[in-house]
Design brief:
Elements (H helix, E strand, L loop, with lengths): L16 H6 L4 H30 L1 H5 L2 H28 L10 H33 L3 E5 L6 E6 L6 H19 L8 E5 L4 E5 L5 H26 L4 H20 L7 H25 L1 H13 L1
Antiparallel strand pairs: 1-2, 3-4
Length: 304
């Protein structure tokens, strides 16, 4: 299929909101639109609440670990904005944009993919951070400031200083942008085809899809191995570790493997639902398992 050959499935008269809800032929579009918008509204509220909690708590702002949590929250909000546009475009097609091949679409999905890769890189860094700081609280010798003796006062957690954490945040953002730059070249563009109900590569046989699977597989492996190691060392974190590993495996499977399947409305519905589910799960896990974040949110509600 070339850009000139692409034809929309419905006429402009069939793209009204009334027709979307009334026509049996557009039932799948209606389900995807309603579920997509509803899930993204929930995700927006949860992420804004999490971001507000982090910004209002001086204690959390001083902890370098929460720099990564803030970055993930920002990535979620960017993805929610771009995916909300995509859900609307899938429902109303050429009433929103005359072609899926426009430059604006190319830039939207470049930003979306940059946020996705930044998100994956940040998850991997967080997993490594948790292994170092939680699973291996090893103390090591440092020279005393008062005498010539050596004594144990520091742990590996001290390696994650605020400056290093800020540098890692910048690294994740730079890595996310670098991984998405090929989408600006005709060889590796990423477009949403509303009649297929999903986002896919164009051309479909691009070399970038293999790089995509390789890097995302590496990120998923780091995350799962890190949390599995935590489970082996700290048994009390079993529920947290299982949930984090399961969520990331499901996210990886749905987002990166589904586009390799045959493009159908049902596959697209699952992909878009899991995309929003991923944005919901991160703040939900933070509020359930992180007492500091939970207490910070409680204080915000108490003040209001």
């Amino acid at each position: 299929m070339t850009e000139d050959e692409y034809v929309f499935e419905y006429s402009m008269e069939q793209l009204s909101l009334q027709y979307l809800f009334a026509s049996p032929t557009r039932r799948l579009d209606m389900i995807q639109f309603m579920s997509g918008v509803s899930l993204r509204i929930i995700a927006f509220l949860l992420n804004i609440l999490l971001l507000t909690t982090l910004m209002h708590s001086a204690t959390l702002r001083k902890n370098s670990f929460y720099y990564f949590v803030t970055l993930i929250c920002a990535c979620d909000l960017i993805q929610l904005t771009t995916s909300l546009y995509n859900v609307t475009y899938t429902a109303f097609r050429q009433a929103i944009s005359p072609s899926p091949f426009t430059l604006s679409h190319q830039l939207i999905f470049f930003v979306d993919d940059a946020a996705m890769w930044t998100y994956i890189c940040t998850l991997a860094v967080i997993a490594l951070n948790r292994v170092v700081c939680v699973a291996f609280p090893v103390q090591f010798k440092v020279p005393s400031a008062h005498d010539d003796d050596f004594f144990y006062i520091a742990t590996f957690e001290a390696l994650f200083t605020q400056n290093l954490s800020k540098s890692l945040v910048l690294f994740c953002v730079a890595a996310g942008i670098a991984m998405s730059l090929p989408h600006l070249h005709p060889c590796c563009r990423l477009f949403s085809f509303p009649d297929w109900h999903m986002t896919t590569y164009y051309p479909s046989d691009t070399w970038y899809q293999y790089l995509d699977l390789l890097v995302s597989s590496l990120g998923a492996m780091i995350i799962v191995l890190s949390y599995s190691l935590m489970f082996l060392i700290i048994r009390t974190s079993a529920n947290y570790v299982f949930l984090m590993s399961a969520v990331n495996l499901v996210m990886f499977s749905m987002i990166f493997w589904l586009p390799c399947l045959e493009s159908t409305g049902f596959v697209g519905l699952i992909q878009n639902t899991m995309y929003a589910f991923q944005n919901i799960m991160n703040p939900t896990i933070a509020f359930i398992f992180n007492k500091a974040i939970r207490d910070g949110a409680t204080r915000i509600f108490a003040c209001t």
